[in-house]
Amino acid sequence: MMITPPPAQRPTAYNRTAATGLGLALYLYTARRFEAPAPAELAVFIRALCLLTALEVSLVAGLAALYFDTSEERDWGEERARRPALLTAALWTGGVFASNWLVSAFVRAGTEAYVAFGLPPLYGPVM
Fold first, then answer.
1. How far is CA 2 from the centre of its chain?
2. d(CA 3, CA 36)
3. How confident is the model at residue 127 (pLDDT cuts 50, 70, 90)?
4. Separation CA 4–CA 123 (nearest Å)
5. Is the dihedral angle over the CA atoms 8, 11, 17, 21 positive or is it negative?
6. How many other C-beta atoms lie within 10 A of the C-beta of residue 99?
7. Which pTM does this prediction carry?
8. Residue 15 has pLDDT above 70, yes or no
9. How far apart are CA 7 and CA 60, in angstroms?
10. Which helix (H) or strand (E) segment is 40 a member of?
11. Burial of residue 69 (number of CB atoms within 10 Å: 0-12, 13-18, 19+)
């Protein structure tokens, strides 16, 4: 049985958790930089939906990262234990970025389809 130091004493203890924040920041930067044109009445609404879904996805990814970073009683196997911390952080950052992008694209397409079919607005007075 191998004794491991507590997570706070290892230099790469929270690399997945930090990578989650980096993935969110990269997504927010690129989504703002390469934003597709939208109708004026939907631009703010679509931005808010994309931001909220990105925060939701990143929160779930951050909780999962925190769980994987702090769980010591799990036997992850020798292969995973030898994986470099930088590679783990890069994979986690890419996964968070791709998940945010896919969920945002899905929300945007759903909102545009909702408007294209001429359904009532999602906000504001209905009557």
1. 33
2. 52
3. very low
4. 53
5. positive
6. 18
7. 0.71
8. yes
9. 21
10. helix 40-70
11. buried
